[in-house]
Design goal:
DNA-binding, globular, mainly beta, disordered C terminus, homotetramer, 174 residues
Chain lengths: 174, 174, 174, 174
DNA sequence: TTTT
DNA sequence: TTTT
């Protein structure tokens, strides 16, 4: 028996990217930052930011692509999974992803958005609709745009390590 | 936004009890013990056991009823949920249940059984089959008995604090 | 071996209450609400709020008493622990508390406060200072008031179940 | 605010390695395997094993070095942390470690060992002693060998990806 | 009521 | 490299 569980709350460094597998299933990639701060021995404030590559499949991927944006704060639950890839320099490397099985959108800059997906609290029947401001509630599976739809998600094939995002610091809105 | 998540590993105090809702959905109840030990200020070994009421619905309930037994060690993930009930003395009390959305069977005394259910690691598609000794693997949804089937689960109306559904006793379809 | 772990994010229903044990150790009690929402079979939005009694000891208790207020959003990590008590009607009941071992203050209405206590990320050495708005950072153990100190915490002996808080719905700021 | 929390249960692939920082603090490295299994679309049993690099500091490092061995089953709680290192080929790579803040020894093949360390359930006061078979209980901080002491931990400089401290080899104080 |  |  084993357990491989990760719980993250962080903010997206960029808009999520949604692609589709040959069989039509959606895959969504983005990365989120978590940061820890502490006082060192000299009483100096220290901060360290960690970037986590998130991967979602199917319904969760589509919801993320539809509702998450750069800067969004999100709760992610999933597992750690390594992945080999060929770098631009032709050298094999290993990337680590968090494969998500649950997501909750937290209050982003645009307001008190909150939603839950995944296994839900009530077994399969429970699917909490995304809420953004005064949006009407829509079922989580719905593809209809909410009253004030977000911009279309970017759909592209991301470079191998889904998000090294180390060059965007001055763009990050938090 | 809020989070209400519980992770438990413990042993069943009794066999699980499975009942059926009027709509045919299964409900499973059992309790598991967790214990913590520590040394007090006098270096004396101290132990404290906590009992947790677990409630499962639908597929998870059926799997639990089929494979768990008194003494089984189990990993449970779920949420805390309170429930009012009328005690035998006619006085209202509040019970706390863990409503499970995931379960992993750990090695019990009877062997290295291990299985996972719930959201799974691979989105909905992932359903780990129960394994007991050299059992063949069966899909998690399967109702067929494994090669060496466990005794039939007890099906009864438990006393109040263990019973989340108190209005369906005479609806049980068998 | 067993595991008894609870992760909560919710809002305080009232100001925390801090008391002191005969040995001088602080104890802090408050309750936080978590809520889940879902669409029922008729597409109607449903919501359910759960109240969790939180108990903290020692340093964590003092920090909570100093920085948390009614409405504060907080991340709590701890374990479930039952407790017998004598109700006002003289009848014994069982209450369930979450005994916290870690806390992070999330953004409350008053701004982007964020802090972490408990085991920290860096073993015992890691103690993240409370930040409120533009407060200077102070060590977590510090008892000094921050630049803009919150009102003194209420110190009293709470009634037995630390917070049934079922009568304050229209006061809750979220 | 952010959250970066990992919960793992797995088995050590090798004995843990303990080294000491120039300041005398212990660092322990090992890796544990988690595996997930599922049935693919053809009903074929699939398995995937993931290896996690674990890093511990100070007291936790010493306890791990003393009690864990190849094959030991362990519960680890910590956070994900990336780390740059120079590979043997001179190329920079990124490794991911789980920096542990809590550990529980689960039953290994050699018997029902069980112990808990870290923040404990009772704030700092709670330190569960390691138990191995009929060992007497000793405080977690104790350096004394238990009645039937395990073999001395290996102390060496591991290859890059498993080594978080790569500049202290000649500083080890023994 | 379990388990170590 | 572990374990089931």
């Amino acid at each position: 028996m084993s357990l491989n569980k990760v719980l993250l709350i962080g903010n997206l460094g960029r808009d999520p990217e949604v692609r589709y597998m040959p069989n039509g299933e959606a895959v969504c990639n983005f990365s989120i930052a978590t940061s820890e701060t502490w006082n060192d021995r000299n009483g100096q404030r220290q901060e360290r930011t960690e970037w986590h590559n998130i991967t979602m499949y199917r319904r969760l991927a589509e919801i993320a692509g539809q509702y998450l944006r750069k800067g969004s704060q999100v709760y992610i639950e999933g597992r750690i999974q390594s992945r080999k890839y060929q770098g631009k320099d032709g050298i094999e490397r290993t990337a680590y992803d968090i494969v998500a099985n649950e997501m909750k959108m937290l209050g982003s800059r645009s307001g008190g958005s909150s939603a839950e997906y995944g296994d839900g609290g009530q077994a399969g029947a429970y699917q909490q609709a995304p809420q953004q401001g005064a949006y009407q509630q829509a079922p989580a599976y719905s593809q209809e745009a909410p009253a004030a739809p977000p911009a279309a998600p970017r759909r592209q094939a991301p470079a191998a390590p889904a998000a090294p995002v180390d060059d965007i610091d001055d763009d990050i809105p938090f």
